[in-house]
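This entry is passed on directly below:
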Amino acid sequence: MGYVLAVEWTAKAGQGDRIAEIQREFAPLARQEPGCRKFFVSRSGDDPDVFFLYEEYDDEAAFDAHLETPHFDRLIRGAALDLLAESQKAIYEPLD
C-alpha cells in the first residue's frame, strides 16, 4: 500500500534560510520514524523561499504518528509553520 505526500512550502519573504535550517534538523529525525519510507526536502533553485517535500509512509496511520512526534511539534508546529506564507499538500497512493 503506502501513503505519499507532495508538499510545497513557500516561506515568508526572507525566511527561506531559517526554513532550510529547520528542515536540516527535522528531516533526519523524520526518516528514523517507524513507518517512514522516504522523507526528502528540496529547495527551489529559482526562489530560495520555496521548498518541495516528498514524504512516503507505510500507511496513513504512520503519517498520523509522524504528526504526533515531539520533533514535529517542536520544529514544525513550534517554528516552521509560523514562517510560511503558503503551504500546499497533495496525497497520493502508490500504484505498485
About this structure: Strands lie at 3-11, 36-43, 50-57, 84-92.
